[in-house]
Amino acid sequence: SKLKITTVVNSSIEYIHINNYEIKTWYKSPYPLSTNKNKILYICELCLKNSNSRQTHYNHQFKCTNHRNNNNIKTPPGNQIYFAQINGLSIWEIDGRENIEYCRNLCLLSKLFLNSKTLYYDVEPFIFYVLMKQTKDSYDYNFIGYFSKEKSNSLNYNLSCILTLPIYQRMGYGNFLMEFSYLLSRREFKLGTPEKPLSDLGLLSYRNFWKIKIAKTLLLIKNAFEQSSSSSSSSSSSSSQAQLTLKTITLNDLANLTGMTTTDVIFGLEQLKLLYYHTPSVPSPASSQFSPNKEEVKIKIKIKSWSILQELVDNWDSKNYPNVEPELLIWKPMI
Ligand code: ACO
Ligand code: ZN
Question: Which residues does the UniProt record annotate as the domain MYST-type HAT (predicted)?
Answer without folding.
Answer: 8-333
